């Protein structure tokens, strides 16, 4: 800024006012001279320096795991667009669902003086505990705060599981199974719990509900392993909840390898409603989560935190399948899925 001031023959204060849009005290000739110097010298305000001086930033950090998952990518797109509309810039970090990487990024983003954090499917970690203890504005998305409390945006996962139970029972499938991860997060464990609770409430014996579990962090690999467990322990059920679409993809791969027709032999129901399902998974029925609407809710939560207003959980309505289907016919996506 001092270089621009010298080049234009004005004070640094004059350049600062013009850069910040406060041009009332400057003549048209002065404004033109400063703007010409700015353009010729390729001057851009230093946002980090400005943040240091004013303790304010227009940058928000999103930390999310496994961005190769279409659901994570859809959340990122929605939040980035809503932040941009609100005048903010988003930095995106992939934590790979690992606590140490999450903490590395939290430290790095704090050094950048970000205005807040959007934690998508966060895991428990020391760095997260320190971030919350400092009171840094933080919104949790898809998965609740693993340390409890905090602003949250997501669906009612327990109700989503219950909706899948109603759907499969409506299709005449009396003993559906559930495929889930060994290291179940709050979101997926709630889906499985809601599914099982609804089945039991509707008369299915608890011990008759098969639970297939796969190890690891990759949902495709988890689905493949969980389907293998089903095969080893009684064969394919007529229908199953896969607690994410990616788990359903993995289960489908094993079915193909075993020559099991899906959905004719086994109706798989996922959760996400990934946009690519209509292209690569027409066999999959899915609970559709409207991730495209998450961004606005996340920004509203951040704005409440910035202004000191208390926040509460925001549950976005999901789109459940209805029991229209013939279990022997090819599955179609739930309304709006893909």
UniProtKB/TrEMBL annotation:
SUPFAM superfamilies: lambda repressor-like DNA-binding domains, Periplasmic binding protein-like I. The keyword Ion transport does not apply. Residues 4-44 form the HTH cro/C1-type domain. The keyword Ubl conjugation does not apply. Residues 1-54 form the HTH lacI-type domain. SMART domains: HTH_LACI. Gene3D superfamilies: 3.40.50.2300, lambda repressor-like DNA-binding domains. Keywords: DNA-binding, Transcription, Transcription regulation. It holds the Pfam family Peripla_BP_3. One of its GO terms (molecular function) is DNA-binding transcription factor activity. This is LacI family transcriptional regulator. It comes from Bosea vaviloviae.
């Amino acid at each position: 800024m001092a270089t621009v001031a010298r080049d234009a023959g004005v004070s640094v204060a004059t350049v600062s006012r013009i850069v910040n849009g406060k041009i009332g005290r400057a003549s048209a000739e002065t404004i033109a001279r400063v703007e010409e110097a700015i353009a010729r010298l390729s001057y851009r305000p230093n946002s980090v320096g400005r943040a240091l001086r004013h303790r304010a930033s227009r940058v928000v950090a999103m930390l999310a795991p496994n961005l190769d998952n279409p659901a994570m990518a859809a959340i990122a797109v929605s939040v980035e667009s809503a932040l941009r509309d609100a005048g903010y810039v988003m930095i995106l970090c992939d934590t790979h669902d690992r606590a140490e990487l999450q903490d590395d990024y939290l430290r790095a983003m704090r050094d950048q003086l970000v205005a807040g954090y959007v934690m998508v499917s966060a895991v428990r970690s020391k760095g997260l505990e320190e971030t919350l203890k400092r009171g840094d504005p933080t919104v949790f998305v898809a998965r609740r705060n693993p340390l409890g409390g905090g602003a949250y945006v997501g669906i009612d996962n327990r109700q989503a599981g219950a909706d899948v139970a109603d759907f499969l029972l409506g299709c005449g499938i009396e003993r559906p199974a559930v495929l889930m991860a060994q290291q179940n997060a709050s979101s997926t464990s709630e889906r499985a719990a809601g599914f099982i609770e609804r089945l039991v409430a509707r008369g299915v014996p608890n011990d008759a509900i098969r639970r297939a579990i796969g190890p690891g962090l990759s949902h495709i690999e988890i689905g493949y392993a969980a389907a293998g467990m089903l095969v080893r322990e009684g064969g394919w059920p007529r229908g199953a909840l896969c607690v994410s679409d990616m788990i359903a993809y993995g289960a489908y791969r094993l079915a193909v390898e075993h020559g099991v027709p899906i959905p004719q032999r086994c109706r798989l129901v996922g959760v996400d409603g990934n946009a690519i399902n209509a292209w690569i998974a027409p066999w999959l029925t899915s609970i559709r989560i409207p991730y495209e609407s998450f961004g606005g809710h996340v920004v509203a939560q951040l704005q409440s935190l910035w202004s000191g207003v208390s926040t509460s959980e925001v549950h976005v309505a999901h789109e459940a399948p209805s029991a229209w289907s013939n279990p022997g016919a090819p599955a179609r996506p739930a309304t709006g899925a893909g």
